[in-house]
Amino acid sequence: MRAALLFLAVTLGACSSDGTDAFGPLASGLRDQVMPQAPEAPVVTRAAVEASPFALIRVRMPEGGAAVMTPLADRGGVLTYMSANRKSLAVTGAAVTGSHGLGGDLLWMDLPARSPLRHATPVQGWAGTEARTYAHLGNNLAIARQRVTCQRRLGPAGSIEIVGRRHAVRRVDEQCAGGALTFRNRYWVGPADGRVWRSEQWVSPLIGTLQIEVLKPFER
Amino acid sequence: MQTGALCAGPIHRTARDPLCRVIRLSVLLCCLAVIAAYPARAQKSPVRNLYGNSGIIDMPSAEVQPDAEIAVSFSGFEGYRRSTLSFQILPRIEGALRYAVLPGFGADGSALYDRSMDLKFQLLREGPNQPAVALGFRDLLGTGVGSGEYLVATKHLRPDLAVSAGIGWGRLGSANGFANPFAHLSPGWDERPAGATTGGTFNTGQYFKGETAALFGGVTWDTPVRGLRLMAELSSDAYAPEGRNGGFTPDHPVNFGLDYQPSNGINFGLYALYGRAVAARLSLSANPRRSLSTGAGPAPVPVRARGDPNGPPAAGPGTNATALWAASIAALSTALAEEALELDGIGLSGDTAEIRVVNRSYTLISQAYGRALRAAQNSLPAEIGKIVVTMMEGGVPVSSLSVPRADFERIAGTPEAEAKLADAVTLTDAAPDPPGLIQMPERLPRFRWSVAPVLAINAFDPDNPVRADLGLQAEGQAVLAHGFSVSGAVTKKLVGNLDQITRQSDSSLPRVRSDIALYLREGDPAINRLTADYLFKPSPQLYGRLSAGYLERMFAGVSAELLWKPVNSGIGLGLELNYVGQRAFDQLFGLRDYRVATGHASLYWDTGWQQVEAQLDIGRYLAGDWGGTLTLSRHFANGWRVGAFATLTDVPFDAYGEGSFDKGILLEIPLSWASNLRTRKRYDGVIKPLARDGGARLNVENRLYPLVQDAHAGQLRANWASVWR
């Protein structure tokens, strides 16, 4: 694989007037594929979080990288969070309902109108069942839709710490299945206000499960 | 010149290296190798045999590969070698092209270098109570050394155990045979005529004939060991042509083998053949429909609705309208640049804004449209109620997509957004010069250049199966006005042995292509191309091109083309007229004496069925011969194209020489298929077994149909979901 890409890099590793560096964008793109940069792991402090004028979330990728994202648009209750390196998530309430730029992205997910994920709901209201459809873009450029049924039940109460701040939470476990697909999501929910401080959410077959932590909540 | 030519190297979007009419096989191999890193498919593809076809060991089965699967297979035993390029042409039609080396084949002990082609038609799909049934033809063209036909059935007794049985004719009816059943039906069927001497034509007179037919069969077991399959078969091939002069002769007809898939796309085979030989096989496969890229890259900017404080600018009391617009256009230009697009112009009429966009980044035009729509939505003043995005190619508008802004705001990011947007947009022919169009101030003349290594490969020459040159190619373009440019390319060889080709042309036609060896030897450095080009659009459905200069490596002159192609139609009509002179072998500025008027009327048809496209060109070719070329290809949503073409002209088969008529296969592989790069670069290749003079067409750059096609309805529909990517 590396050898093949290196071959491509050599074949394409040309100079051109379009290039922004000596090797051109093509070659540098290939270089990034051949020698991936260390996963972005920003050091986040509570002071930096408090200094930010914007809401912030931290997203951890399954393979270990992490990115801090900030909301760039608020449209019809859907926030679009984006990182400095232009990866983005559409977040409806507490649920990831879309992704961009990660590869194998979630085009959309139809979250039911009454889902507790959509609106801050005290944790007693979380248990139950809901149906959703996940639509992602396959490597054949066709949309793969998968209808799943998700069952939520309340887990243990406790507390979690996110960048120097401790939150009392109750864990909610969600088991989803449909077709050949099964996955588990987890949410750490403020018991009274229903605010989700941390979650692990499956996004698409290629992306897998992301961990999302709210460093600074968005206030409308 | 009895040899084919292969070339490899990076080239621009529609370019075809004129000299070699070309394969870029190395790229294909490279792409296939990349697959090694990707996770295995859940469903296993059928085993390939020593011929690279779906089969058992040396025998075929009735199975076929997944639609569009493409593979190269290399196999060998006791000095016999077969290299096969196979392709699942349609879900039920499998095809293969092969180059085989048979040592000691001739009476004088000389080796035979044999090209052959196979086709297999799956007549029945396997069902719970029925086997798959296929009718196949091996080596159905050409000299027919390996020719054989078969009817075979395959059934899975268990999910991991497939059994095949069939009857073969010709080569496949030569071992332990019985009287050919067809001979009872019709006299003369017991005699199999010899294949054509010049090759390249269908040997229909041979099919299913011969004294004997024979039965073959085998089993394939998918073992519990991951990736390992075991096979055993009874062969019906006596290897009579090989044995005639003391070559390979089977001891018995039973073969055993294993197929191991260490990772998806790579298969090894190891076999005990006919009781006396050990054979090995390597197959590399990929599926053009399934991209290796994940689509990762910079995310699009989020859509902001009007009314959002950070959203589109709105006029308030006392706003200076001119200043608002100036700021808005500047913001639009920046927003497009962030999406790797370029603002070419903007037109206003009523509450509609049309933005004209140059796309140098996205292979999928629907993705370019999506990104441009977002930029326009977020930047244009709130009073604009309808957005039109027009894609530009070569300075010419090729299609316009319009959407009411309220719909775009409502739909973005919602479930079924792609379907809802498809209903909300209108795709129209782009107006050449809409009223109120403001052209962005261009820095003219504008220069673009690149220098890149190129690899030219020549294969299949009996004197030396592979020769290659590594060189550097410099390209430059100066855009002098909208649609008008001067461009050129120069190649300098660094190292290689293409100049050692000694075969002389024996052509009785004007030597328009067969002097390739002389061009290869003397063109160092060579001016590949140096032309002035003008692209224009006389009416919304009509496109035009004028080119003059050194059009390609063998010809210089003038070229004019008109294309009629409505944006929502699958049909296009083209007319191209050229007057050219043959260039000197050194490929600098000189010309030889040969002059010819050449040109074609073309019909383009996107059938809308299985992504099949057809092109028919009728006219006069470079050697002055009259005729037509039919090209059939599959053009996948991601930009891949695999096709085949054949040209018949008034040149008789024996005057044409080996191969009888011009034919070949073509490949276009977008780099964005294999990587997450934002680039429209792609590899274009033509694999032709022979470079001869009949049916040769001029290779001019910037032909119009490829320029407009990707922005038209057929291809946009195919990859529409990428509009939100």
From TrEMBL, chain A:
TM spans (from-to): none
InterPro entries: GfcB, YmcC_sf
Tree of life domain: Bacteria
The protein's name in its UniProt record: YjbF family lipoprotein
Taxonomic classification: Bacteria, Pseudomonadati, Pseudomonadota, Alphaproteobacteria, Rhodobacterales
